[in-house]
Amino acid sequence: MYPPLLWFYTRAVTDKTWHINKSNLWHFAPFICFLGILLIPLLGDYNLMTSRHVGYPLIKLIITPVYLVAVLVELVKYRKALDQHYSYKHQMQYKWLSWIVWGAFALWTIACIGYISNILSPEINPILYDYYVLGFLSMYLFVLAIIAFSQTDIVLSMPDNPTHAIAEWKKPENTELYEGYELDVSKIKSAMEDEDAFLDPLLSISRLSELTQIPQYKITLLLNQSLKKSFYEFVNEYRVNKAKQLLASEKVQQYSILGIADESGFNSKASFNRVFKKTTGLTPSQYIKQLTR
After folding, report:
1. How confident is the model at residue 217 (pLDDT cuts 50, 70, 90)?
2. What's the domain range around 26?
3. Are 56 and 37 in contact (CB under 8 A)?
4. What are the CA-CA distances from residue 2 to residues 45, 101, 109, 279, 289 (Å)?
5. How many Å apart are CA 54 and CA 47, to the nearest integer?
6. Domain of 168: which CATH number?
7. Residues 65, 94 contacting (CB under 8 angstroms)
8. Nearest CA among 93, 132, 94, 136 for reference residue 114
9. Is a pLDDT exceeding 50 seen at residue 179?
């Protein structure tokens, strides 16, 4: 039953407006069938339940990757949508889901190995196959529990709710630039260059919309079609340029790398290093050394 539950959890995390309704109940059909199979031991023959002729393990192994692939597709869509709404990465929530999915893939691989071994060695009691899988499943859940308790900020520390904004956002049907779009592009750039909006480490597209009085869908359209950038790329380009100015100035002696990151609008040293290196090909420290040569 855990594959559909993982799917439900992913949908709930990536879209706060989503909820289970009657149209989702069909996901429980395989579980109901398995529940019927579990009643077979009451008839006196447990071996029928796990027999490969009944296909009980095989059905589980087929259903699981289908759900895992669906979850991965949803996560890819979620990550792309984040880049259209936020100037910083909501890494915790994304990484947490990724850990769960890849852990489930590893567990599925182990189950496949056990199933194949059971076929190649029919003399082995099929009950051992269940013990084998359940053992690894228990370890998987135990590790997840430890991570969950040690990473209590996975959800609680998030200052903004990305799922709410993403759920409301829809890709513009018309992707052609409208007449007079240059003026709106100028307003967006002005908010960055004159008002230093990029210095807000939690800047979102909704906040930029408030500053410029331009609807969010238009900002997305202008950035994607006119400037060929996502919102995340657009804002962080200004932050990197600001950081380069600071690193090349005398202020570099007054600030640590973390201080430069804060002064440039980044919300963490890790994100600063990551974005700076992706943009310039150098870490901030390497960039400083290059300037002093």
Report:
1. confident
2. 2-160
3. yes
4. 26, 11, 15, 40, 51
5. 10
6. 1.10.10.60
7. no
8. 132
9. yes
Of 160, 175, 190, the domain-final residue: 160
Reported as a single tens digit per residue, the pLDDT across 23-55 is 777 777 767 776 666 665 555 555 555 554 445
- Residue 1 identity: M
Q: Give the per-residue pLDDT at 288.
A: 86
Region for 265 from its dihedrals, namely left if φ exceeds 0, alpha if ψ lies in -120 to 50, beta otherwise: left
Decide: helix, strand or coil at residue 135: helix
* CA-wise closest residue to 236 among 91, 87, 89: 87
- What average pLDDT score do residues 81-103 get? 71
Bridge partners of residue 86, in order along the sequence? 204
- The neighbouring-strand residues paired with 204 are 86
- Distance between CA atoms of 122 and 47, rounded to whole angstroms? 12
Q: Say if residue 68's pLDDT is above 80.
A: yes
pLDDT at residue 156, rounded to an integer: 37
Of 160, 176, 196, the one marking the end of a domain is: 160
Q: CA-CA distance, 41 to 59, in Å (whole number)?
A: 19
Longest dimension (CA), the chain: 83
257-264 vs 231-248: helix axis angle to the nearest 10? Answer: 130
Structural domain tally of the chain? 2
How many CB atoms are closer than 10 A to CB 254? 11
Q: Which amino acid, residue 7?
A: W
Strand, helix or coil for residue 74: helix
pLDDT digits (tens, 9 = 90+) for 99-126: 778 888 887 887 777 777 777 776 666 6
Residues 238 and 198 sit within 8 Å (Cβ to Cβ): yes
Where is 195: in which H helix or E strand? none
Residue type, 157: S
